[in-house]
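User: Um, what's this?
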Amino acid sequence: MSDVQKVQVGEVQLAYRVWGEEDAPPAVLLHCLGEDGEDWRGVVGRLAGTHRVVALDQRGHGHSDWPGDYGSARWRDDVIGFLQALGLERVTLIGHSLGALTALLVAAARPDLVARLVLEEVPPPLPADPPQEVPEQPSGPQPFDWQAEVAVVTERNAPDPDWWEALEKITAPTLVIGGGETSHIPQGHLDELVERLPDARLVTVEGAGHLVHEERPGEFLAAVNSFLAPRS
């Protein structure tokens, strides 16, 4: 994998890895809860063939700072600051789960920064039904700050209602990737999300579950590359 670099964004240092040619169009990857930029190792090689790929460790994860202060608005603002710190504009933003929700909120808040949007198994900002319970923290060291888990579950139960309304502000063409009925994300919510987004399509990889890019990397890449291919 690429060497880890760091940049100061507000009160936190954020870690990231870079692949691909410097003059290639930028693609920024946002991982799920509990992972870091290394989570994309199975697909980054192909993506870097056409893009300058940047994989971020979100706050509370990996080599980035663990300040104890989390939530989707924090992760959103971190990414906006990160893009500005690196001078990245009109990026392809690719997120998985928590990272996909972050990407969604970035594209709604700053549509000028996002050219294309890929959302893998995104939890739409609708209240979880039934409500989720915060799992008990495992003993021993964890690869991420457990307070991030607490923040995610709290927001899944009571997301900011403005986030759902803000989706109409997204201007980037959007690809939503679902893992089918074996996923814990209600696939019907993905249909609702696609209907609300101004320019979106849904690709379902049946049987992939929540970890599409890990379990079915070939199908994930086929969907993404087709979506990102230049239009004639």
